[in-house]
Amino acid sequence: MYFKDDKQISLFEFGQSAGIVLDPENRWVKMAGKVNWDKIEDKYCGLYCLDNGARAKPIRLAICALLISSMEGLPDERLVLHIQENPYMQYFCGIKEFSRDLPFAPSLMVTFRKRFSDDILREINEMLFSPKPAAGNDDADNDRPNSGTLIMDATCTPANITYPQDIKLLDEARGKTEQMVETMHERGDGEKPRLDKQKARREYLKVAKSKKRTGNTLRKAIRKQLSYIRRNLGYIDGLMRHYDKLSLKQKTELGTIQKLYEQQKYMIDNHVHTMEDRIVSISQPHVRPIVRGKAAAMTEFGAKVAISVIGGYAFVDHISWDAYNESSDLIPAIERYRQKHGYYPEAVMVDKIYRNRENINYCNKRGIRISGPRLGRPKKGETYDKRQAYIDSGIRNAVEGKFGIGKIKYGLDRVMTRLKDTSETSISLAFLAMNLVKSLCAFLRFLVLTLFPAKNRAF
Q: How far, in Å, CA of 270 to CA of 273, rounded?
């Protein structure tokens, strides 16, 4: 039941049983009308199995719950309580009449994040906020004049992990392997393996709490922790030949710890400090260090996210847990722009890293102006249009603003989800929520401009 012509009647029917009258100007009511839920239901109904298990929650309820979580920054338990108590949120979620019961169990939010993956949310974002392709758009049609502006940039969305230190990671790994040994060993199975837990912990704390520690002291402490882990892994290997009592989570952690041990041993033996696919978190082994070179933090630990801003709306181009050069995203983004609009952009606003020879030659062949000075030493008598550069920098602030809003308002400053897939879902969800709020603000601006012409306004 999605309301357009009978919006007022539907609002009345929603709260009639509970004696509640909804305000049609409420933001949740307005945002509910901005989305064609029937189209989304038809497109993604195949995600559900119709003949297996209990009846699934509606697609609209799942997506709206994820959107509310991103917009309000609520953990799963509090989110469910907010929806239970707020009739406007229930209306936004597509619930047909106000109910005082819990809409679903908080644990279902993890299922929602897994079901509506990063790719699906990107498709929904494109479906809702991308313009329709111009008529006659095909590969052979190259005569349309360039129009519009494409703004691009990338940032890092830090994961919720402590700052990784080698000695601290090894202490955590040692503690987990000790728990695994105790889990697998039972009374009557023979003598319990020697673990030296208290001794190993004291040796770690002696270094971790010292105010001044030399490189030699740290290396000795790391070697000791490695020796304890090597011994514990040997115990586990022997016990697993007779007993398989580890949970799935422990087995996953065991594989991560084995890889961590190999990496740390290689670095300490070869006196190096970097390594490909270096593990910085046992609970989130997919997280990698991303060197940013920013004043606040030289290195961040999370996913690198590249986005495009078109007409004020943000679209995710690339999410990577490994460091990469974002300049490779420019050409694919321009081609996607052409597929959406039917023509190339008139200008591309990017920072210095995107301005390599391949990208500049690509843009020049297609008549696309790319912001910034040309490469190389300036020719004699050549002048750089500083006014145009100032205008371009002002336009490019739009993408920086999206990152700022995402990190301040939508939780991208610290992604709280733990799994790789659900973290990517949370990132894409933040930009979908941002665009939905943007569309609501654009509608209000349209009303202001219509009701109060520019000649009668003081701004």
A: 9
- The more confidently predicted of residues 204 and 18 is 204
On whether the CB atoms of residues 239 and 185 are closer than 8 A, the answer is yes
Separation CA 215–CA 126 (nearest Å): 51
Phi, psi of 368, deg, nearest 5: -100, 125
320 phi, psi to nearest 5 deg: -135, 135
Average pLDDT of the segment spanning 91-99: 88
Q: Which letter does DSSP use for residue 174 in this model?
A: H
Please, is 346 exposed, middle or buried when counting C-beta atoms within 10 Å of its C-beta (0-12, 13-18, 19+)? middle
Q: Which helix (H) or strand (E) holds 299?
A: strand 299-310
In angstroms, how far is CA 98 from the centroid of its own chain?
Answer: 32
Residue 16 token pair:
């009639």
pLDDT band at 8 (very low <50, low <70, confident <90, very high): very low
Q: Report residue 160 as tokens.
A: 């919720």
Torsion of CA 263, 268, 273, 279, to 10 degrees: 20
pLDDT at 338 over 80: yes
Instruction: Extract the tokens encoding 382.
Output: 């050549």
Burial label for 396, CB within 10 Å (0-12, 13-18, 19+), is buried
